[in-house]
Amino acid sequence: xxxxxxxxxxxxxLAVAAPPGPTIxxxxxxxxxxxxxxxxxxxxxxxxxxxxYNILAVTFTNKAAKQMGERVTxxxxxxxxxxxxxxxxxxxGRILRREADLLPVNKxxxxxxxxxxxxxMKQILRDNNLDEKLxxxxxxxxxxxxxxxxxxxxxxxxxKDFRDEQVxxxxxxxxxxxxxxxxxxxxDMLVYTNQLFDNYPIVRDTYAHKFEHILVDEFQDTNFSxxxxxxxxxxxxxxxxxxGDEDQSIYRWRGADYRNLDRFKSDFKNAEVILLEQNYRxxxxxxxxAMGVIDQNSNRTRKKLFTKAQxxxxxxxxxxxxxxxxxxxVVNDIRDAIRSGRNPSEFAIMYRTNxxxxxxxEAFRREGISYRLVGAQRFYGRKEVRDMIAFLRLVYNPMDExxxxxxxxxxxxxxxxxxxxxxxxxxxxxxxxxxxxxxDLTRPNHPYLSELGRSGDKLVRFAHLLTNWxxxxxxxxxxxxxxxxxxxxxxxxxxxxxxxxxxxxxENLLELRAVVMEYETRGLQDFxxxxxxxxxxxxxxxxxxxxxxxxxxAAKGLEFERVYIVGLDEMLLPHSHSxxxxxxxxxxxxxxxxxxxxxxxxxxxxxxxxxxxxxGTYEDTVPSRxxxxxxxxxxxxxxxxxPRRSNSSWDREPSRWxxxxxxxxxxxxxxxxxxxxxxxxxxxxxxxYGHGVVKSSKLEQGDETVEVYFExxxxxxxxxxLAKLDIL
DNA sequence: GTCAAACGCTTTTTT
DNA sequence: AGCGTTTGAC
Length: 728
Fold this sequence. Notes:
The protein is an alpha/beta fold. Strands 11, 12, 13, 14, 15, 16, 17 and 18 form an eight-stranded mixed beta sheet that branches. A six-stranded parallel beta sheet has the order 3-2-6-7-1-8, with helices on both faces. A five-stranded antiparallel beta sheet has the order 22-21-20-19-23, with no helix packed on it. Helix 10 (224-233) links the parallel strand 6 and strand 7 (240-244). Helix 1 (10-16) packs across helix 2 (33-46), helix 2 (33-46) crosses helix 3 and helix 8 packs parallel to helix 10 (224-233). The longest helix has 22 residues, at 454-475. The protein binds a DNA duplex through helix 4, helix 8, helix 17 and helix 25.
């Protein structure tokens, strides 16, 4: 274990062996950030003899957590067992289950995902006769979410106008209804953990003492609520070790707040700051392009990315006629490379929006190449899968009204709106949840059965089903419960009888059953928790040797030999929703920066002159403004599209031989090989400063900087390629 | 209460 | 263009 540090560069060693105490590691892309974190954990355990269970490590995704666990185990074996390792939500879930007695929900609470949240909000709107078009559930929920991320409860919701008043009211109702459902949403997991710590200092201190060392990955993307949890947990030992890169902050829309770094510095005095700058991933060309893009952002510490690796190939810019051709060109390129011996898993295609994957998928299928698609809710978003999970959730937590409403008439069993309304009213009368009321109906001679009339029988029948499943959940394994639900509801024939896509659906359920089998011993609670918190990304088989398609967001933290970023058009990147505000635009730029810096060897950027708009028709595009920030001399263009003759702006579309105007911003340095154009002593003239004498000239970052002494103006430092200097 | 047709809206990114 | 939701008929 003593050789642990020898495998690291000096900067990394410094970071890994940093003395205990508040520590900030600012790590550029490809600087070995993950490596530092894993080695740090290994170092704590094997050198400082910190017991694994006194270490908390927080990552941004489940995948990252899993990976980190594997790597630490690789380093130190079984000593790594017992680390608290996971996303904020997973960690909070663990704490909340333990301390459920102190919460407004009981220990069988379920986690509502976005769909559940919307379903619940729609119910609330309906109950309150509010127009869904005026009060869009998604927009209200996003306002609520933003508040929660800043730890602002309904009582403190800022009201500026009538609408705010309504939102505030809905916020109150929403929280009430969640509690009645014995449920919480993603944000609540963090909020409740904060409340737990605030209301019960003893509980807080228990955890604060337990976690001697806390490590946080992707710190730049934490929100205030998350930061507050960290601050609470680190109050005893103050060993908070955070790793991040402001240039890779891409979750502002989710409440991520880069100011957490300042908060950290002021909350934890004397925090040590360690910089990791050297890049071990990309070629210098790729890094230069990345810097060209990111340096346009203000309010940041300018960093110089450097590598000892080679300059590498120029990056390619491909312009296609339309988005289909764009996809075709990319896939073709990959196919050719694979044929000539490249490994399929070396390739990644990245895009701004999930919708863009579709054309690419088609192209891959046409070429008969298999691919990996990250995210895009391809599996867990499926109706049949969600239905089955709703059944299971109802079994686990009958108070879950959203799931109850979803499955009570599924497959249709004659329980319509009216019957559901009756049940709901009955529940309200008794101050119980609908689910509890339903289960209560199985009691012999139930007093309300006569009230419900004929529909009562149907309810009772379903109530018996649910009761039986609840017994099955107690006494049998998960898969037996799963099978019984399908059998009892005849769900298979419900989805399968129709077309051939019915078979697909059934296969999806079989796939879900395979997942269920993995939780055979751990049980329903763990299964449901995983379903709620584990994203699709974690399900993609790593073994599959195929090109990967993923959003730029999903690409964070990954690296690939060859990267294609498609859709470098205005409205897409930067996205149409993010072009107004400067902060939004800066984030779009960071997104591209993240994408570029994923590439090890080769980078290809593509765009299309026309693409299918969200509204079906084809529309002309405008090149992304970010393209002009790429140093031209590092870009090789492949223009496949014919310039179109029309009276549109595309008359200005460049031909194959011409440098397109959107790239013309960065001039090629005049003398790339070590020679400067200007020499000391030369007489020059400048349009504003007039006559001057060159004092010195040197090459910096491929650009020539000249110091000139101007009569009446003094000494000026000028960039040779930008300043219009003439040699006299 | 169920089924089919018409309608209208959508696409930013994710724990 | 395609999907999900609402509307209207049986």
